[in-house]
Design a protein that fits this description.
β11 and β12 form a beta hairpin. It contains five helices and twelve strands. Helices cover 27% and strands 36% of the residues. With 168 residues, the chain is of the alpha+beta class. The radius of gyration is 16 Å and the shape is globular. The relative contact order is 0.15.
Length: 168
């Protein structure tokens, strides 16, 4: 059965950091999760659609860029559910590959907590690839970076500076 990793406020609503939930698609797993934890419904959904403010990743890929709620799941699949950033900072960086951001975060003492999630002293950093910026036939990769916590601003500024250097 697919595993579901829960982060931040989702952990508080379920009392769990990870659950095993049956389902053949993302939508089925989320529906069963809501059946077991009704408080999640308003956090995960707007009507019948996945709420825009919520991030759901399948093996590190945003399900919105797969088949959404219809995305099929293997029995070994892992979903990561992230609530919206509250009291944090977020920005999309162009041409900052995720592997480079991961290298920076690890060099700065970050501890990987999941796909696209690192814990730094006083902050939690989440990042994911989003729709590339298209200029004519050129597609520039985009990375959405969200930082929350008491030291969010300092870490966010450090990430922004590193991104502006282009890895140099």
């Amino acid at each position: 059965m697919p595993k579901v990793n829960l982060y931040a406020t989702f952990r508080g609503l379920t009392g769990k950091s990870q659950l095993v939930v049956p389902g053949a698609t993302v939508g089925e797993v989320l529906a069963r999760l809501v059946e077991a934890y009704p408080a999640l419904k308003g956090e995960l959904f707007e009507g019948e659609e996945l709420a825009e403010r919520v991030s759901v990743f399948l093996e590190g890929r945003d399900v919105r860029y797969l088949q959404g709620l219809s995305t099929p799941l293997s029995p070994e699949a892992t979903l990561d559910l992230f609530p919206p950033v509250a009291g944090g900072l977020a920005q999309t960086f162009g041409a900052l590959p995720s592997w480079l951001l991961e290298r920076y975060l690890e060099e700065w003492g970050g501890v990987k907590e999941g796909e696209g999630v690192y814990r730094l002293p006083g902050a939690l950093v989440r990042f994911r690839e989003v729709e590339p910026l298209r200029v004519g036939s050129l597609a520039i990769p985009q990375l959405l970076v969200e930082v929350e916590g008491e030291a969010a601003e300092a870490w966010f500024n450090r990430i922004a500076f590193a991104a502006s250097r282009g890895g140099g």
